[in-house]
Specification:
Blueprint (H helix, E strand, L loop, with lengths): L1 H13 L20 H9 L1 H15 L4 H7 L16 H14 L9 H15 L14 H12 L13 H13 L11 H8 L2 E3 L5 E5 L1 H13 L3 H19 L1 H4 L3 H12 L7 H4 L2 H14 L9 H12 L7 H8 L8 H35 L5 H12 L13 H20 L3 H9 L3 H21 L14 E3 L6 E3 L1
Antiparallel strand pairs: 1-2, 3-4
Helix pairs in contact: 1-6, 2-3, 2-16, 3-10, 6-8, 6-11, 7-8, 9-10, 9-15, 13-15, 18-22, 20-22
InterPro entries: ARHGAP19_RhoGAP, Rho_GTPase_activation_prot, RhoGAP_dom
GO molecular function: GTPase activator activity
Organism: Oryctolagus cuniculus (Rabbit)
Length: 485
C-alpha cells in the first residue's frame, strides 16, 4: 500500500529507527547524527529557524526585503514586476487545483509523495534508457497513470504496460503542476545569492571561481528550513537525478542536461517566463546542476548546527553561530563541552603541576650532589649551607609548600645565592667564563634551573605568560653594593 511505502522512504530519509513497535525491535538501529537537530526543529521551531537563518545571513548578504521574503513575511517580488499570482487569481487557482485530484496540482503532502515515490522507485531501476527525462512519453499511457495516482491506487509499473519515458515525463508533470516550485518562492533570492559565492585571492579580491564549500554549507542550511514535505521530496528527486547523471554514458543525460529539464520546476517561480528571469536563468540552471552533483552532501546539517542543537538539550550554553563555536574550539581540544572541559582542565593542571614539581626536585637533588662532590673549599661549604636553608629540596617526610610560596622562596634563594657566590666581580666572571671550573658549571646549572623552573611551574596555566628571568646589575645607593633585580 502507498502508506507502507511512505513509511519506508521516511525511514530512509531520517536514517534512524525508533523501535517502539515490537515488530521492529529485532532490526538494526542506525544512529542519526541529526537527531537533536530534528528534535529542535519539531519541538522549538522558532528557536531552530532563528539559529539556521542567523547562519545563512552570515554566508550570504540578504537585504531587508529579501530576508523578509526568506522568513515568509512578504511575498516574492521579481525584477520587472513579475511574481506569483495573488489575490483573486490565487484563490481561483487554488479551487481549480482542488478539483484536479489528490496528487496532481495540489499542495505537496506526504500522501502525495507516497504516490509519486512509486514513479521514483521504478525509474531507479531504469536509468540506462537513452534520453531519460528528455524524450516525451505516450500521452495516453501518461493519462492512465495520472488517474491511477490521483485515485490513490498502487500501480504495478513492472507489468510492461508503461515505458520509462512515460514515468519520467509524468514525474516532471507532477513537479510542474505544484502550486509553487519545490524549493518554494521564499527561497528564490537566497539561491541567487548562493550562486554568487566566489573565492577570494590572496589580496582579498573576488575571483570567478565558485566557492564550493560555502555553497554547500549555505544549501545545507537552506534545506533545513524547507517545509518537511518539500525537503523529503527534494532529497528523493536529487538522489534520482544524481544516479541518472552517473549513468550518462548510457542515457546521455549529464547533470547539466538534467538541470535544464528540472530547474523550471524546482527553482523557477511560477507564472514567470524566461524573459522575466533574464540573466538569472544561467545562475538558476548552474545552481540546479550543482545541487545534482553534490546531492549526497546537502542533506546533512553542518557540524556546528548539530552541536548547537545538542547543547540546547544537554549543555549549559547554546551557541548561535559557527563563529562562536570556532572561537570555542580554538581554545584547545575541549571543543564545545565547556563544563566537562573545565573539570578536565583542573585535573590536567594538577597533574602537570605535580609532574613539574617532581622534575624540579630531581634536578635540584642532582645539583646538590654535584656541589657535594666538589673539592673541599670555603665556597663549597657556603653553597651547602645555602642549600640547607631552603625549603625547596624536600625530604621524604616533608610536605611541599604552596606554589606561590615556592615561587617566592626559590626566587630569593637563587638570587641571594647568585649575588653572593656566583657572579662576584666582573673580572672574575670573565676569567671563569674563559676557564670554567666545576664551581662555575654548578652555578650555571643553578641559574638555568631557576629559569626553567619558573617557566615550567606556570606553563600549564593559560592565563599566565612567563618570560625568562633577566639578570641586571644596579648600584646600591646606600650600601654601595651590587644588587640583583
Amino acid at each position: 500500500m502507498p502508506h507502507q511505502k511512505l513509511s519506508a522512504f521516511i525511514d530512509a530519509i531520517c536514517s534512524f529507527v525508533i523501535c517502539n513497535d515490537s515488530s521492529l525491535r529485532g532490526q538494526p538501529i542506525i544512529f542519526n547524527p541529526d537527531f537533536f537537530v530534528e528534535k529542535l526543529r519539531h519541538e522549538k521551531p522558532e528557536v531552530f529557524t532563528e539559529l539556521v537563518v542567523s547562519n545563512i545571513t552570515r554566508l550570504i548578504d540578504l537585504p531587508g526585503t529579501e530576508l523578509a521574503q526568506l522568513m515568509g513575511e512578504v511575498d516574492l517580488k521579481l525584477p520587472g514586476g513579475a511574481g506569483p499570482a495573488s489575490g483573486f487569481f490565487r484563490s481561483l487557482m487554488s479551487l481549480k487545483r482542488k478539483e484536479k485530484g489528490v496528487v496532481f496540482g495540489s499542495p505537496l503532502t506526504e500522501e502525495g509523495i507516497a504516490q509519486i515515490y512509486q514513479l521514483i522507485e521504478y525509474l531507479h531501476k531504469n536509468l540506462r534508457v537513452e534520453g531519460l527525462f528528455r524524450v516525451p512519453g505516450n500521452s495516453v499511457r501518461q493519462q492512465i497513470l495520472r488517474d491511477a495516482l490521483n485515485n490513490g491506487a498502487d500501480i504495478d509499473l513492472e507489468s510492461g504496460e508503461f515505458h520509462s519515458n512515460d514515468v519520467a515525463t509524468l514525474l516532471k508533470m507532477f513537479l510542474g503542476e505544484l502550486p509553487e516550485p519545490l524549493l518554494t518562492h521564499k527561497h528564490f533570492h537566497a539561491h541567487l545569492k548562493i550562486a554568487d559565492l566566489m573565492q577570494f585571492d590572496d589580496k582579498g579580491n573576488k575571483t570567478d571561481v565558485p566557492d564550493k564549500e560555502r555553497q554547500i554549507e549555505a544549501l545545507q542550511l537552506l534545506f533545513l528550513i524547507l517545509p518537511p514535505p518539500n525537503r523529503n521530496l527534494l532529497k528523493l528527486l536529487l538522489d534520482l537525478l544524481y544516479q541518472t547523471a552517473k549513468k550518462q554514458d548510457k542515457n546521455k543525460m549529464s547533470a547539466y542536461n538534467l538541470a535544464l529539464m528540472f530547474a523550471p520546476h524546482v527553482l523557477w517561480p511560477k507564472n514567470v517566463t524566461a524573459n522575466d528571469l533574464q540573466e538569472n536563468i544561467t545562475k538558476l540552471n548552474n545552481g540546479m546542476a550543482f545541487m545534482i552533483k553534490h546531492s549526497q552532501k546537502l542533506f546533512k546539517a553542518p557540524a556546528y548546527i548539530r552541536e548547537c542543537a545538542r547543547l540546547h538539550y544537554l549543555g549549559s550554553r547554546t551557541h548561535t553561530s559557527k563563529d562562536d563555536l570556532d572561537l570555542t574550539a580554538s581554545c584547545g581540544t575541549q571543543s564545545f563541552q565547556l563544563v566537562k572541559s573545565q573539570k578536565r582542565n583542573r585535573v590536567d593542571s594538577c597533574s602537570q603541576h605535580e609532574e613539574t614539581q617532581q622534575h624540579t626536585e630531581e634536578a635540584l637533588r642532582e645539583l646538590f650532589q654535584h656541589v657535594h662532590n666538589m673539592p673541599e673549599s670555603a665556597k663549597k661549604k657556603q653553597l651547602i649551607r645555602q642549600f640547607n636553608k631552603q625549603s625547596l629540596v624536600q625530604t621524604p617526610g616533608r610536605e611541599p609548600s604552596s606554589s606561590r610560596v615556592q615561587k617566592r622562596a626559590r626566587s630569593r634563594s637563587f638570587s641571594g645565592l647568585i649575588k653572593r657566590k656566583v657572579l662576584g666581580n666582573q673580572t672574575m666572571s670573565e676569567k671563569k667564563d674563559k676557564y670554567p671550573t666545576p664551581e662555575s658549571v654548578a652555578m650555571n646549572e643553578l641559574k638555568r634551573a631557576s629559569r626553567e623552573n619558573m617557566n615550567s611551574l606556570f606553563s600549564g596555566s593559560p592565563a599566565v605568560t612567563v618570560t625568562p628571568t633577566r639578570l641586571k646589575w644596579s648600584e646600591g645607593k646606600k650600601e654601595g653594593k651590587k644588587g640583583f633585580l
